[in-house]
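Bumping with the actual sequence this time:
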Amino acid sequence: MNLEINRDAIAVKRPRARRRQTARTAPRVLEGDIKSRIMAALGCEPDVLVMDNPSGQARYGKARVPYGAGLAHRGGADLICVGPGGVFMALEVKSLTGEQRKAQIAFERAVLARGGVYRICRSPAEAVAWLEELRRTHG
């Protein structure tokens, strides 16, 4: 068997120019991964108590079953903390493109009305910066 290669027919691929990353083109990072990293970052701080607040819905066949533990509340924050000076901290973890649901907005308002603090964080760096801000104001 004799194969001849037509070198003129071979297409040369040019490397594509790199585009700037945006919310649509950035690699997808799951909220659970962000939450784990935030828990690790805040858990190292001596003046903060961090508690996971799992809640949501699981699928069981065709049914959706709500679940929750501890301070779970519809729309409740992902992390509940006691911070500097004993301040109640509710921390909602979101991905780069994540948005608050109506129940989460209602929970935020309830926390703020009772003297707590609430923040949406998209990275451990944001959570640590928020903690530094709280130390200045509540420390």
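The tokens above came from a reply further down the thread. The radius of gyration is 23 Å.
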